[in-house]
## 1
Amino acid sequence: MKGEPWRAALVVLRGVAQVMFQPNAATGLLFVAGLAVGSPLVAFGAVFGSMIGAGTALLCKFPRDDIEQGIYGFNSALVGVAPLVLLQPRPMTWLAIAIGCVLAAVVTRLCRRFAPFPTYTAPFVVVTWGLLLAIHGLAGHEIDAPAGPSPVSEGSLAGFFAEVLSGEAEVWLEASPLTGLLFLIGIALSDWRHATTAAIGSMAGTLLASYHRDPESSIALGLYGYNAALAAMAIWLARPSLVPVLLAAAISVPLTEFFPKSLGLPALTAPFVAASWIVLALIALDPYLQRRGTARP
């Protein structure tokens, strides 16, 4: 990528897009635009993280094709965002981001070499949890970002669709329906089926959370939609059929509800990863689910 800034920019944007399974630079650009709607600083964090992840992979001579497709950018991009949302932007926060983005790329490579199953955003989750534990151990919770105002559920059809779109936005820890809409448009530019699956997943998660009478403010934030959207997309890629897709979305909701808050750590995308693993195991064990479609590479 040296001497070719445009090519490097495409790799960085693909890394951003790969957070939602799209190796498409235009998708990544719309993701960055969506993040900038909520916070230009967070948008910068996504680009910065993907850049560090790709740069680390290049220096460590990871497979070039994977680098070009943004595989080593997406976990690092998420690590670049999470501390800026959860913590105040102090020098310690930026140092943690830089270290975490390098670690995320390395852990991604180790997982791709040795894990017998898809690891998805597990490297982001593990690295971010470690960073938060270390930062809180050094600086206490005074470094935490102040909590914003809790949104109010409107209880209308328009309010429901706003919650669904917020579910898409929460993939990147944002809660803006406009951000979520830009994300869906970005996914559709790459593959309309994936955008449809993401919307179905967020709808299913939001409806199930409402049926379970989960806190309305959490539903309005999209907290039960984003893991469902990601799980639905992940399973569609493995088994393109509605039954396992809806199953994955549904399983993600109780995992989000019962995530052990006593640990003092945010759930992040851990429920998505766990739900996807559970459904992949069920597909491997259940001949009926195996017949519900043909696996994609």
## 2
Amino acid sequence: MKLSSYASVLAALASLSESAPTEPVARDLPLVQSNQLRRVLLRSELLKKGNILQDFAYATEGRNRYIGTPGHNSTVNYLVETLDALNYYDIEVQPFTVPSASSTLSVSGAEYESAPMTFTPAGAIVAAPVVLVANIGCDAADYPAELAGNIALISRGTCTFAAKATFAKAAGAIGTIIYNNVEGLLQGTLGGEGDYAPTVGISLADGQTIVAALGSGTVTADLDVDLSEILTYNVLATTKGGDQNNILAVGAHTDSVQAGPGINDNGSGSIGILEVAIKLASFSTNNAIRFGWWSGEEEGLLGAEHYVSTLSQEEADKIRLYINFDMIASPNFVYEIYDGDGSAFNLTGPPGSAEVEKLWEDFYRGEVDIPTKPTEFDGRSDYGPFLDAGIAAGGLTSGADGVKTAQEAEWYGGTEGIIYDPNYHTARDTVENLNVGVWIQLTKGIAHAVATYGRSFETLPAKVKRSERSEKRAVSAGFQRKGGKLVY
């Protein structure tokens, strides 16, 4: 089904519901087993599908799969058509609108590429002086009195973009420009609504050019941030068979940033769960499996937030566990498991989160002899809204903008001292720059969890309905979702 408007989505959904049988698939399929499901996963299929997504991006102006673009809508169409052909899933396409922003920036008459921060307010500023903020703008004392009525220029680093934008506005700035501290255009999020002036990111090179110009005298800038809305779509596929009151939810996001095709971030996760979903169609399950492909992650986890917020309490209580896969083919990779038991980062997920972490620790230690390390439940991907709702969660990742340590280089190879994906949020996030070895291994980790929980949830704590819970969730007090991955 082709997605171009809300009306066409509704028509296509009606067509799907008329053509697809609603009764469960026949139970003569063999019950899923981890080794059998893992065995049929192929690197060649991951690469084939990665090239399909890259072709969608390259057929789009800007060569990306950003929400609302032909590249992203083609991704959604491809998922729906592929899943519908299996006749194994009940498919739902969930439309919703996402706030969107565009910006223009000129400094001393020269045009500069800029990217509005998610959650920035709109605004037009004409010929305002640019004032350099001291250090990296993580302390109110870094913001000089001269900022009042002017535009702040700040280096990325250490504290959140939101903190910098908040300090700038408090100092009287009418606009904020944050320049990158690594190569490439800075595309980030403020993480939520706040008291900000219009805020954009620019590249390191452009930031350095403006800083150098400030050394020679006054520099003025025109900054315009415009806000609008984009219609976009989640895709949900739930097995027709299995206990519909006990669901394993499996998710990844489909959208890229505007800077590039997003084949690791997050074509890799989207394709990983798609390939598992395709191969699962040859098996039966005791529990239902629901695969979710979320849109709007790069804008602040908006697709996953929309899905979770529209669940009734009864439907949310049916989800025993949510597992998330975001960036699973990083070139300078690590093997990271979300710290569900809180032993590494003192931030515990709801009951069941510790158990899925242990499932993968045992799998990688025992089955494939690969060391793993915990990563923090810091709210930088689509598990965040599930945690907020008290739903157990976990996930695997090969890393984003964390810097590889000497210990990690010893374990996995690669280059110490650089980030896990040097192509993160750039035009170089392509099929050619993926690590296919880690991609297939983490996809097998997805399959192991799907097969295990597709058979039984016996290793998870007994299900407790939200209506029966007290203040038991350790995460509720300390978890702060940051909305999108790039917040610093």
## 3
Amino acid sequence: MTYDVLVIGGGPAGLSGAVALGRALRSVLVIDSGQGRNAPAEGIHNFLTRDGMSPAEFRAAGRAEVEKYGGKVIEGEVVSAVPGFEVTLADGSVHRARRLLVTAGAVDLLPDVPGLAEGWGTTVLHCPYCHGYEVRGKAIGVIGTPGEEQTEHKMRLWGQWTPDLRLLPLDEIAAVEKDGVRMTDGSLVARDYLVVSTRVEARAAFLGTLGLEAVEHPMGIGTIVPAIDPTGRTAVDGVWVAGNVADPMAQVISAAAAGLAAGAMINADLLPPAPDKP
């Protein structure tokens, strides 16, 4: 069948957009790779009435809501999409739709430090608004470059949550160990949590076959698939983006809001043209 809309990505943006479209009586298929950016986190925060809910529980509830309104959710990795729209998955299956909502998210690339990735999302953090309250008062190490603007900003910002803050120069770190950070001089700096800046890259390789490429974020923090208006419309007719694929700083609640806005505009775009006035 040809769906009204294919939603590529089953995170908060995609699920929210799918619910809006389902409630508008559109046929919707959500394709989810299962690679949620916040999957390692214990819980989501700053989402009114959902504080502390695990990412897995949030997704399960969202999927159930999509299905409640007639949408369908499947597991799969999109490898290409061509005008029309025809989307091919890694397993060779093909799905078609009149419009695309791309909410595939982003991936965080961490500095190449042994042991750092193992703690990502639990003891290795990046966002104080996501995790700061939970680690308040703990011994925190900020990994960065002394004198660098971004590093100095993180030191000032995280200082709101703890007085026990220490800057750990990236080029002096040998490895992250269970009890702290091993420096190149052999010393061990005991820290409960580490803060690190990541490069955030949009999951968008499959859009190249549509002529839609990821570009560098204006702040130089990674890549995004750019929208040409606030609803998420892209330069490719019939394709919208929402969530971290377009905004790496979007939290769960703002990603969901962006998905809703995109879903509403896609529904409007699918309306038949207005009749000619006499």
